[in-house]
Structure prediction request, 149 residues.
Amino acid sequence: MATLYSISGLFDNLDNQAGVFFGGFFLHGSGVSGTSSLEKNLRGMLVDEFGLSNIRGELAPEENLEFEKTYRGRKEAISYTFQFDSKNNLWRGKYSYSYGLGEAACTIHSSFQAVEIMQNTARNIESDNFISAMIDEMVRKGHLVEVKP
Prediction:
């Protein structure tokens, strides 16, 4: 089972000292990083003014968040490490890469909890029915509640 999170925040840009905003999503939980069942695994994507990036790392809810961010078309990873700031209800931390260090802050929000990571690699579910099948499965297991008008 995994949880889908949204993430948004900002980091300081070492070149012009202005804040750069970012946003994206990640999945966190078992089955996220291949065959591993470690509950701290996360995998997702971010976007900012420099482009699209992939992230992989670990989350210990309300404790720490760490991930490596790699922009598409680039090889060098940027390491982010955050600690949860309960006073301000946000994650504060630092990033580092070959050009130096910087500060960052973000918020994360759980969007869908207890999501089965359904693999559609065999194409046993037609692509237009994949989302419907996923939602139906979440309703059937009680992780999503159907609201009737």
